[in-house]
């Protein structure tokens, strides 16, 4: 059989990992798919950049679009990144030239995934993107193939290694946010612009793709509610810990009669849940299927080798001739994403208040909650950093705020927002209340 010829655009972390993998496991590929997988052309921003891997044996292209169109390759591998610009132009050019495309570009797919899928289907070629979601975890193929017979009820996960690393280190080392972020950047996990990670947008890109695959809907990045981890303080982590929880940045999407609730936000999860144990840069994705039950995949969400493994898995599918619609359901049959109102989200909540230490302040808080028919599971006047210190006679100060931690029973988000607005309006708190959803997993 003829070799499968690859044109690779982008030789950074992932591209370098892919070249290494193709060299190391080349003979193995030829055995399992019955044909050689051969890199013929390369394009990158700089030809001269010092790399761990030699690129002088391949035909060089200054312009990735020219590589995408060139007949010397059958498959175009896009590892440039960015939601528009040259990555988009090159992918479109490759699909129009009836070439299979493999990409790791979540931002591109979250914005233009449906248009590109349409182009791929029209030209009878693959658009594979396993590496775009959760690095080395094979979640796209799992949803497309192994669990394809299920109706998915909920999909959720830890989809950003940088955020999970920051939250884990804040928990373990009691270190501030900014300090740990610097470390994550130095380790090479963070996006070029780290606000993409910590603001939750990288997770939202990935969740947009998972939501489409899970529920057969058009990709709708703008319908996802996004909150990042910037507002999480050491006080929250300490209080959550003392109450039996961990704080994780989760992407969660579920479908009900009212529509799809897709959100990215910090969440409290029970310490003994499987997802609470996922620490550091590790990612995890869970799918709840109507017949499969809950399936949890855990693994490396970033890094050269795991991401290259995902890209190479997509290449193997092309080499075997497996072509499926990119979003499983053909584009013409994908439903429009109907957004469920977050106000109607039903669950328990964690609240941290900075409450003035004066008579009636706590009673006013309790009244604001009961006015919205919110039942409280616990209220703790928290003593941060001093939980285990010897007790002394309570010191009351009218002018100093005391942290108060509340865990509610299940209620709606609308009721919570109204109660917290009333608490703020009463003037007994020194700062806006912190509210974090508790996720039942
Ligand atoms: N910045 C991402 C992360 C890399 O931290 O997980 C993979 O998308």
UniProtKB/TrEMBL annotation:
Primary enzyme class: oxidoreductase
The pathway it acts in is: Amino-acid biosynthesis; L-methionine biosynthesis via de novo pathway; L-homoserine from L-aspartate: step 3/3; Amino-acid biosynthesis; L-threonine biosynthesis; L-threonine from L-aspartate: step 3/5
**One Pfam family from the record:** NAD_binding_3
Name the chain's protein: Homoserine dehydrogenase
Annotated residues that bind NADP(+) are located at: 9-16
Q: Which UniProt keywords apply?
A: Amino-acid biosynthesis, Methionine biosynthesis, NADP, Oxidoreductase, Threonine biosynthesis
Tell me which domain of life the UniProt entry assigns to the organism this sequence originates from: Bacteria
**Where does the chain bind L-homoserine?**
191
Question: InterPro entries, per this entry?
Answer: ACT-like_dom_sf (IPR045865), ACT_dom (IPR002912), Asp/hSer_DH_NAD-bd (IPR005106), HDH (IPR016204), HDH_cat (IPR001342), HDH_CS (IPR019811), NAD(P)-bd_dom_sf (IPR036291)
**Which GO molecular function, any one, fits this protein according to its record?**
NADP binding
Stated family: Belongs to the homoserine dehydrogenase family.
Q: Where is the ACT domain?
A: 350-437
Any one Gene Ontology biological process term? Answer: methionine biosynthetic process
Active site, UniProt feature: 206 (proton donor)
Binding annotation for NADPH: 106
Question: What's its EC?
Answer: 1.1.1.3
Q: Which SUPFAM superfamilies match?
A: ACT-like (SSF55021), Glyceraldehyde-3-phosphate dehydrogenase-like, C-terminal domain (SSF55347), NAD(P)-binding Rossmann-fold domains (SSF51735)
Q: Which CDD domains match?
A: ACT_HSDH-Hom (cd04881)
NCBIfam families on file? PRK06349.1
